[in-house]
Amino acid sequence: MSAVDVIRAKRDGHRLTDEQIDWVVDAYTRGAVADEQMSALAMAIFLNGMESAETARWTRAMVLSGDRLSLDVDRPTVDKHSTGGVGDKITLPLAPLVAACGAAVPQLSGRGLGHTGGTLDKLESIPGWRARLSLDEIMAQLSSVGAVVCAATEGLAPADRKLYALRDVTSTVEAVPLIASSIMSKKIAEGAEALVLDVKVGSGAFMKTLPQARELAAALVSIGVDHGLRISAMLTDMSVPLGVAVGNAVEVAESVDVLRGGGPADVVELTVALAREMLSLAGIDTDPAEVLASGKAYETWERMIRAQGGDPDAPLPVGGHKHVVTAPEDGVLATLDAYAVGVAAWRLGAGRARKEDPVQAGAGVLCLAKPGDRVEAGQPLLELRTDTPDAVPYALEALAGGYTVADSAVTPGPLVIDTIR
Ligand code: URA
């Protein structure tokens, strides 16, 4: 078989055969297909798409490129994956909550790239906390605590690691078959029995429109079903940042508030809704709202953080420089654009432009008013935090037009738009 034949077939709009897919993914992982050939193939897939059976086979080949974990624990295993958003700290309260309800939650997570934050970057703002665990440590913590949030091990879907880096620099990320196979190959390799997908839709998400998000959700669910997972996808709004905090340490602090029975209403709502769905797929009949209120989820959080070397009681870093954006006039905050806030937080140092860049633990944005809130001229709307004050003008530039004050605001739509099972 030759890479050129496979590229030509997809370039000319043909369906790739199982043999072609298995061969090209394996050969690319081994280095026998060059980056430039895989780039051309990714672009051909981007332009001509893949049928669902092709996407399923492509996913299977990526799973087989590495290890598939066998999670041998005495509780049902269930995971959650978010397609990424602004202020999306939900994994932090959710993993200990679902574990406190009786499931085992293996959450192998990534770092942030661009305007969406990464779960590991957020947790690394806790002094001492360690993202990299060995397989033995993951298994031990899953059994003892019930929840692990850590970096994916090197051996999981190595074909995806190589291909994702290539897609990032060849403008071939935003293709549904490639996104769906990338996400699902890692989740299938991780070995959980059940998975709930949080497919974000809106300006701060990958998928800007509901039809696009539905297409991605359907592709993800179909791959999961094919691989024997119990799976569902919730379509959730990402046109406005989730909660108040957008950044790293600020999002940890907000998650702790939620685990202690407080926190912003939207973060609590989504955490409980996702927990209900996860528990339902795991076959556990427990009310997560009651467990959250009981303080048991917070106890599990403390054990989860300590198990990975972190000190849950240590003060969190705070950006050394603050800048407050105020309301220009009296009225109602009509819009607060998730993408604009995400880019501002990123420019303040909360995110990275290249995957090797460091992030600032204390950088971020606090959204002190949310759409629908009445505001007075001069009232603080946004608090920007950073260790690099020179970044503030760039963050303000990102926020220009990102919020509006008007006489009235449109009533926001639901946070959970739909669930696809
Ligand atoms: N997240 C992934 O893991 N892969 C993609 O292709 C896009 C988002």
Rg computed from alpha carbons, rounded to a whole number of angstroms: 21 Å
Low-confidence stretches: none
Determine the CATH topology of the largest domain: Pyrimidine Nucleoside Phosphorylase, Chain A, domain 2
Class of the largest domain in CATH? Alpha Beta
Determine the strand fraction and express it as a percent band.
15-25%
CATH superfamily of the largest domain: Nucleoside phosphorylase/phosphoribosyltransferase catalytic domain
CATH architecture of the largest domain: 3-Layer(aba) Sandwich
Question: Whole-number average pLDDT?
Answer: 95
Choose one word for the global shape: globular
Helix content: 40-55%
Distance between the termini: 38 Å
Ligand set: uracil
Brief characterization of the structure:
The protein has 421 residues and is α/β, with parallel strands linked by helices. It is built from 16 helices and 13 strands.
Please describe what this structure looks like.
This protein is of the alpha/beta class. It folds into three domains: 47 residues, Up-down Bundle (Transferase, Pyrimidine Nucleoside Phosphorylase, Chain A, domain 3), CATH 1.20.970; 230 residues, Pyrimidine Nucleoside Phosphorylase, Chain A, domain 2 (3-Layer(aba) Sandwich), CATH 3.40.1030; 86 residues, Pyrimidine nucleoside phosphorylase-like, C-terminal domain (Aldehyde Oxidoreductase, domain 3), CATH 3.90.1170. Helices cover 44% and strands 16% of the residues. It has 16 helices and 13 strands. It has a four-stranded mixed beta sheet, with helices on both faces. Strands 6-9-11-7 form a four-stranded antiparallel beta sheet. Helix 4 packs across helix 10. The longest helix has 18 residues. The protein is globular. The model has no long low-confidence stretch (mean pLDDT 95).
